[in-house]
Amino acid sequence: MFTLTSKDNPQIKNAVKLKKSAKFRRQTGLFLAEGLRICIDAVRSGADIESLFVTQAAIDKSSDEFEQLSVCAEKVFLISPELFALISDTQTPQGFLCVIKTLDKTAEFDTIKIGGKFLALDNVQDPNNLGTILRSAEAFGVSGVILSDDCCDIYNPKVVRGSMGAVFRLPFLTVPSLADYFKDHPQLNTYAAMVDASAQKVTDVRFYTPCAIVVGNEGNGIRPETAAACKHRVTIPMNGKADSLNASVAAAILIWEMVK
Questions:
Q1: What is the spatial distance between Cα 146 and Cα 226, in angstroms, rounded to a whole number?
Q2: Which of 101, 120, 150 is the last residue of a domain?
Q3: How many CB atoms neighbour CB 249 within 10 A?
Q4: Where residue 232 sits, what CATH number does that domain have?
Q5: 52 and 147 belong to one structural domain
Q6: 130, 159 contact by CB (below 8 A)
Q7: Are 135 and 41 part of one and the same domain?
Q8: In this predicted model, what pLDDT tens digit does every residue of 105-160 receive, in sequence order?
Q9: Domain co-membership, 94 together with 153
Q10: Which of 48, 77, 101 is the last residue of a domain?
Q11: Residue 93 preceded by cis peptide, ω within 30
Q12: Range of the domain at 178
């Protein structure tokens, strides 16, 4: 274990950049996972831990968990609470933060050839929404998530934390265009979730595998070209005065109807 004392240390600077920059995360193939539970989930899911940052107070409070994490990390850095605050993305840091190598989930999408129920996300921007959606997708047993490449970065610290570890376990694939992806995979039965009175109520739909249901951008919904590439349109029936739902709430309802 190495002790770092300066905010100008390259390890600290890199961690700060990984927190702030999606471009830097893509360039380095690294991302951050913060919090004891999330770090333990990463280890249990077989993620490659490039480094572990920890405070002495965190070690004293959770010594057994620290031993488990330190054995799996290539490097361990002991830092002060002040330095930890620089790399942390939370208001009340727990003192555990891992730098993790990005995950290769592409091969797991071979299930499309034989079946499966997938969630597709078209330009979802809010990291809190995306994290919650991933958490729901894993909880309900979705086969995988397909993201357009202009969605919020799946390795954003808020997404990783909000997913409660789902990002480590849930197969996902990022594609330049959902419309093109659907055209290249005609075996997928695709369903665009719309606020549209003419769309079929999702509660009345029978989903045949392989299938994918699409949730769109928080403000603008699904892009016209994505919707045009889908074979079906579905809507969530609502009896109140609200004409739409939060993206993560809508996704949870749609997922449940698809997998039940």
A1: 13
A2: 101
A3: 15
A4: 3.40.1280.10
A5: no
A6: yes
A7: no
A8: 665 566 566 689 999 999 999 999 999 999 999 999 999 999 999 999 999 999 99
A9: no
A10: 101
A11: no
A12: 106-259
Tell me the HSE value of 48 on the side-chain side, using a 13 A CA sphere: 7
Same domain, 125 and 85: no
176 and 183 Cβ atoms separated by less than 8 Å:
no
How many Å apart are CA 134 and CA 248, to the nearest integer?
A: 9
Task: Give me the number of domains the chain comprises.
Answer: 2
Task: Judge if 134 and 209 occupy the same domain.
Answer: yes
Q: Give yes or no for a contact between 177 and 150, defined as CB atoms under 8 angstroms apart.
A: no
Most confident of 2-11, 109-118, 195-204: 2-11
Residue with tokens 């490097």: 75
Helix (H) or strand (E) holding 99: strand 96-101
Whether residue 115 sits in one domain with residue 94: no
Yes or no: say if 219 and 240 are a contact pair by the CB < 8 Å rule. Answer: no
DSSP state of 151: S
Q: Could you tell me if 133 and 243 lie in one domain?
A: yes
Q: Report d(CA 199, CA 68) in Å as an integer.
A: 51
DSSP at 111: G
Decide if 140 contacts 166 (C-beta within 8 A): no
Q: What is the mean pLDDT of the chain?
A: 93
Distance CA 202, CA 210 (A): 17
Confidence band for 195, pLDDT divided at 50, 70 and 90? confident
In a shared domain, residues 114 and 230: yes
